[in-house]
């Protein structure tokens, strides 16, 4: 297994997401440490990126702890946010505007 891209932070070895330490453009190739991947959309600073493929219904792990659940399949290198995960902490109705905006992209 190789090292992951230095533009990504792995907060805990159990995590299935990275945190972006810089903005990353759509189409940018990255190394996940489990193989190559491509960023699916522009990623903002501090947003989550899938470290590996995540199945629908699978828990999203950050800091080694579950923070939400995947609502659909998420490929390695893809943005993990309201368009494909449900938070364990933030009520869904607070995120509805963001979710609708993500669907329009």
UniProtKB/TrEMBL annotation:
Residue ranges annotated for the SAF domain, each copy included: 15-86
Source species, domain of life: Bacteria
InterPro entries: SAF (IPR013974), SAF_UxaA/GarD (IPR044144), UxaA_altronate/galactarate_dh (IPR052172)
Gene Ontology terms: biological process: D-galacturonate catabolic process
Transmembrane segments: none
A molecular function GO annotation: lyase activity
Record keywords: Lyase
SMART domains the UniProt entry points to: SAF (SM00858)
Protein name (record): SAF domain-containing protein
Phylogenetic classification of the source organism: Bacteria, Pseudomonadati, Pseudomonadota, Alphaproteobacteria, Hyphomicrobiales
């Amino acid at each position: 297994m190789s090292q992951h891209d230095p533009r990504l932070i792995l907060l805990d070895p159990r995590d299935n997401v990275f945190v972006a330490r810089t903005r990353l453009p759509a189409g940018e190739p990255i190394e996940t440490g489990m193989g190559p991947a491509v960023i699916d959309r522009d990623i903002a600073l501090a947003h989550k990126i899938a470290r590996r493929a995540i199945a629908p219904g699978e828990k999203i792990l950050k800091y080694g702890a579950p923070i939400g659940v995947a609502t659909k399949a998420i490929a390695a290198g893809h943005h993990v946010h309201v368009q494909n995960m449900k938070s364990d902490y933030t009520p869904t109705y607070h995120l509805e505007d963001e979710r609708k905006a993500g669907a329009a992209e």
